[in-house]
Structures are given as structure tokens and as C-alpha cells.
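task queued by scheduler; priority normal; single chain, no ligands, no partner chains; default sampling; output format set to C-alpha cells
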Amino acid sequence: MPFEIAGQSFPGSAFYYLDQPPQPVFDIDELRVAEGTLDAEKLTEKFGAGATARAFMSAGTGIDKARALKCLSMAVYYEAASESQSGQEAVAQVVLNRVAHPAYPSSICGVVFQGSERKTGCQFTFTCDGSLNRQPSRAGWARAQSVALAALSGNVFAPIGLATHYHTHAVNPYWASSLDLIGSIGAHRFYRWKGNAGRAAAFTNAYAGREPLALPNPREASPLPASAGAGTTDLFSPLPETGAPQVAEPRASTEAPRGGNAPLQSGDVKPEFRNSGRWIREPGAAKPATE
């Protein structure tokens, strides 16, 4: 968020940002009419989605609500900006369904950015494939934010019921056969868990309103490569006998000593400070006769 980024804010700027909560630019019902989208009741009958989700109950501080709105808007925009009104509402509903299911984080940003610390394995592809580097269009973002605001205000998109998964028609993920297909909207196919895990009684998570930062999770640390290249030392190469890590001994410098007037290089210590780390007198040693 702008007020959470160093260098782009000032103390107390969050109060100015949150003083006027965002308002929907587009009316959801008007968009449905304009697109000629099937109304939710008919679409629900067509899909046979079964039980529908409970209306989302907003909670938390103003900052938590702002983060929730941004994360849900990003999911709608980057996953479904080119989809119909129903397609965008369906994506928003999947995110909220996951928040309510104990198999997933209980925050909106936690659900959206789950697995984003990995190059592969993120739950929503846009969080780890570089899509966030693409600036949203103003009109597209306004529409996505309007959908997100409606969902966070209690609007339930009934046609997909309790769906927690979706994918595009262009792929066939390994998990698709293990779930119950609900139906397709635009480019996406929607699924729910099989058995009890997909029934309303399983959606027991209560939203507490504590939202993490609206950012991808930090990348996991990568192990050092086996060989760092010419002129460097592998600090963690295994010993042939034990496989234990060995720490490389520092190499003696092969450079000729420089004269007193030679410029200092990176890592050098000025002559007057070279003994600064030595004891003046070792602890317990006898005092010199002159003291």
C-alpha cells in the first residue's frame, strides 16, 4: 500500500489514505444488464452448484480492510480482467470461499499470495510469474475494484456455490479429476471439493480481519551453487569421506605488498587501526613493572 512503502509516505499518511474509503465506480447489477449476463438464479440452476457461501462479514482495522480490498482487487484483475462480469465475480467468490475453508489461510491476502514465495506452486499464477510488474489499466482496475468491493460488502455470487478451485480451458491440471466440476464461465472451469470437504458444514473458518501486507511472500533462500565459478571458493562442498560441510580456509594474498602511499583497496585497514582488535594486556597476565 502507498502508505506502507518507505519513501512514499510520511508519518500519519495512512489516516489521509483511509479517511475516504474507496467507492465502487461501477454498479454490479448495471454491468450484468449491460453485458446481457445470465442472472445468478438461472446460472445456478444450470450449474447445479448446490449450497452457496455465506455473505462475507468484514472485520479488522481500516488498514486491514484496505489490504483486503487491494488483494481481492488484484486477484480479480490479474486473473479475470478480460472475463465477463460473472467471470470476475466468480473469481472473487473463490477467494472468499477459500478464506472460509480450514484448508487455506483465514485472510484474503493470505489466500491470494499463498505459495507466492516459490517460482512454481503459487495458488494464483499472477503472484509468482511476474504479472504484478504490469501496471493495471485504469478502467480495468476500477471494474475489478468494484467487484471486490461488492464481494467484501456481502454480495454472494451463487452460481459457483462453494467452489474453491478453477483453471482455464487451456490447461488440464492433475487435481481436476479429484474434484467435482461445477461448470464453466468464460475461460474458466470451476470446481469444489468432493464429499464432506466441499459441503457447507466444512467452511468453518471465521474471518478475524487480520491481513498481512498486500505483497508476494519473500522468496525462499536458495542453496549456494556447487561451483561459484573461477576465482571463488565453494564454502559448503561435502567432504568425500563424511559428506559433512567443509569450510574453506582463507587464501593468502598473492599481491605484492603496497607501499605506504599506495591507495587503500576494498577490505584494507588503515595502518593506525590494524592493532585495534588486540588486547593491550591479556587478562590475568602480570602487570608490567612500569605500571
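post-processing summary
- The mean pLDDT is 77.
- Residues 62-80 form the longest helix (19 residues).
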